[in-house]
TrEMBL record:
InterPro entries cross-referenced by the UniProt entry: DUF58
Pfam families: DUF58 (PF01882)
Domain DUF58 residue range list: 72-273
Protein name (Swiss-Prot/TrEMBL): DUF58 domain-containing protein
Length: 327
């Protein structure tokens, strides 16, 4: 295959993939993403979660759900809940009045997917970019099926694709097309370019999702700083924010006693993990970043879902939302 270097570092050599056929563990196309629609019905992004869901019963992880829109002010009827009485209007008019609200028909969902070169890595099953794309597609299908508007932002190294949330199959397909297009650009032989800053995309999310959005971000959060902390905290104040922290088993537990060759596409260096000091520093660096993002759940009160590129996307998304084993 053209991406032999990627296949080698992903441990996918000798798998028998037909020449000229893209390996779905390295790259996904639109047909692959569309085929996930049936599997998405097992997930739920509604406020009331299943008993085994990671979002259930945890104050920091509950979803607000759809909001309430004011509909009318009318006279009180015996069957009305007294909690809906508008006491100011009642006092002014001398007769009991209630405020009537209706649940919003839908709410906008914005799905942010990282498809930069830092995501083009995998050691066991998928590239992180593939896992992020699959999880985002599953989320998009389920949210659309629940009747909400779906849109998203796809982040590449040099470009950003933005699809405005709409309640239409056309918008959903446009999002998945942008996702597959960005994924197809990832290549082991791609020239080294400065990566698009994640903070730039998160700032765009903050401008778009001012209030009442469901925002999902699937990324390895390769570059985070104090500004990232500030932006995600701001987004979560008036929206339902969920982060899918995509990682690879290799970075979660770096093997000792091996030699790793790392490259930026131009220069390369060999790292000997047999050196205990080198291995310890690498392990601390990798685990420290993951721990920092996972700690956002405690600090800011929004759920952080650990997603591994070493496991089937449908299986772990089902487990995270408490639906594993259900038909």
């Amino acid at each position: 295959m053209r991406d032999r270097a990627a296949r080698i570092r992903a441990g996918l050599t000798g798998t028998g993939t037909e020449p000229g056929v893209a390996d779905p563990r390295i790259r996904v196309d639109l047909a692959h993403l569309l085929a996930l629609e049936g599997q998405a019905k097992r997930l739920s992004f509604l406020p009331r979660q299943p008993a085994r869901s990671i979002l259930n019963g945890r104050h920091a992880s509950r979803l607000r759900g759809r909001g309430l829109a004011f509909e009318e002010l009318r006279n009180y009827l015996p069957s009305d809940d007294i909690r809906t009485i508008d006491w100011k209007v009642t006092a002014r008019t001398g007769t009991p009045h209630v405020r009537v609200f209706s649940e919003e028909r839908d709410r906008p969902a914005l799905i942010v997917v990282d498809q930069r070169m830092s995501m083009f890595f995998g050691s066991r099953r998928n590239m992180k970019s593939v896992t992020a794309a699959e999880c985002a597609a599953l989320a998009a299908f389920r949210i659309f099926d629940q009747g909400d508007r779906v849109g998203g932002i796809v982040l590449g190294d040099e470009a950003i694709a933005e699809i405005k949330p709409k309640r239409s199959r056309t918008a959903l397909t446009a999002f998945l097309t942008a996702l597959s297009d960005a994924n197809s650009l990832l290549n082991a032989d791609a020239p080294a370019v400065p990566a698009m800053p994640l903070n730039r995309v998160l700032e765009a999310v903050a401008r778009i999702a001012r209030r009442g959005h469901l925002v999902l971000v699937f990324s390895d959060f390769d570059e985070i700083d104090d500004t990232t902390h500030r932006i995600v905290a701001s987004i979560s104040k008036h929206n339902d924010l969920m982060l899918g922290l995509v990682s690879d088993p290799y970075t979660e537990s770096i093997p000792q006693g091996t030699r790793i060759v790392v490259s930026d596409g131009v220069l390369q260096a060999e790292i000997d993990t047999g050196d205990k000091g080198v291995h310890s520093r690498l392990q601390d660096f990798a685990q420290g970043r993951l721990a920092e993002v996972l700690d956002w759940q405690r600090r800011y009160g929004f759920p952080v879902l650990p997603v591994s590129a070493g496991e089937d996307s449908v299986t772990q998304m089902s487990r995270l939302f408490g639906l594993q084993g259900r038909r």
